[in-house]
């Protein structure tokens, strides 16, 4: 388990992380969300021992990051933001260097490198210098160095930032494959990562924890949860009629779509589809909304900005 206890970091008068407390169990993929400057990377650096907290602490599988730092670090793998690597080294030499820095020697170095290369599908670029690799392969090398010692927890800071859609898909697949028996903490400002990867999400802003829930739980906070969105020809006429439903509380027309919001009385989707049939409208698309994470994110972090 990873447990943060009132974790705080100040840079002079700036309070970057404000008494952050949370715990994470094995098998959890935690999305650590927040706008730029929210304190995400600072928190990751404190958890991984790269930055000392101003106050508070954290435990990594029972080892305190302040009083038992080395043991705590041995139980973590860390991919820093941007995956900084030694560009002049070959992939093989770099991974061997990291394995040696982790304390492995002789045949164990080769075994660890081989296992990481196999898991991250790096065999084809093993002899290439890192500076010649694509962003996707560089990110794979960064993840490979983080898992060389097979840690029970991985902390990945912006693991797909700057990657193209195919590269993002590949990195997400790798993370998903590794998450079954490990703690995975993924710091990101990319909301689609939550849907794609996470079993739990925390939202922070100005260093404060504002929300902690499953992705489904966050979606239920959205005003779009259980709303019905339609695409049809006469939006204004449809909006007028659908707004009269007892199952509806309000309607919204935006970007050629009509959204009907639930009042909480009855089944809105059934009421809307019945009205569509009765009116004889030609509908090209109708959708029951699960909710919109971007709207939840803006609402949660926006409320913090105004306080």
Describe the protein's architecture and organization.
The structure is a single chain. This protein is an alpha/beta fold and 307 residues long. It folds into 2 domains: 219 residues, P-loop containing nucleotide triphosphate hydrolases (Rossmann fold); 64 residues, Alpha-Beta Plaits, CATH 3.30.70. The chain is 36% helix and 28% strand. The protein is built from 11 helices and 14 strands. The strands form 3 sheets. It has a 6-stranded mixed sheet with strand order 6-7-8-3-9-10, sandwiched between helices. The protein has a 4-stranded antiparallel sheet with strand order 2-1-4-5. The chain is elongated and about 75 Å long. The model has no long low-confidence stretch (mean pLDDT 92).
């Amino acid at each position: 388990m990873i447990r943060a206890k009132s974790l705080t970091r100040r840079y002079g008068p700036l309070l970057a992380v404000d008494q952050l407390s949370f715990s994470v169990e094995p098998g959890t993929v935690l999305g650590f969300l927040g706008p730029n400057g929210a304190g995400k990377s600072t928190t990751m650096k404190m958890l991984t021992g790269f930055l000392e907290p101003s106050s508070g602490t954290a435990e990594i599988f029972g080892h305190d990051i302040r009083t038992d730092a080395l043991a705590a670090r041995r139980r973590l793998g860390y991919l820093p933001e941007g995956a900084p690597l030694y560009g002049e080294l070959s992939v093989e030499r770099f991974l061997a260097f990291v394995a040696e820095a982790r304390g492995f020697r002789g045949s164990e170095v080769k075994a660890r490198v081989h296992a990481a290369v196999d898991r991250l599908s790096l065999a084809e670029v093993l002899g290439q210098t890192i500076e010649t690799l694509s962003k996707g392969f560089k990110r794979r090398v960064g993840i490979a160095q983080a898992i060389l010692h097979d840690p029970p927890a991985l902390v990945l800071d912006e693991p797909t930032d700057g990657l193209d859609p195919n590269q993002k898909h590949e990195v997400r697949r790798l993370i998903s494959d590794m998450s079954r028996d490990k703690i995975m903490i993924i710091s990101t400002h990319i909301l689609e990562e939550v849907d794609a990867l996470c079993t739990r999400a925390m939202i922070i802003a100005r260093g404060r924890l504002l929300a902690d829930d499953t992705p489904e739980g966050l979606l239920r906070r959205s005003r779009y949860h259980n709303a019905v969105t339609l695409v049809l020809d006469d939006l204004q006429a449809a909006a007028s009629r659908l707004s009269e439903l007892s199952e509806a509380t309000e309607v919204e027309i935006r970007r050629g779509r009509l959204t009907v919001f639930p009042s909480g009385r009855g089944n809105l989707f059934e009421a809307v589809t019945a009205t569509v049939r009765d009116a004889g409208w030609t509908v090209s698309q109708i959708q029951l909304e699960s909710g919109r994470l971007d709207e939840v994110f803006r609402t949660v972090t926006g409320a913090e900005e105004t306080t």
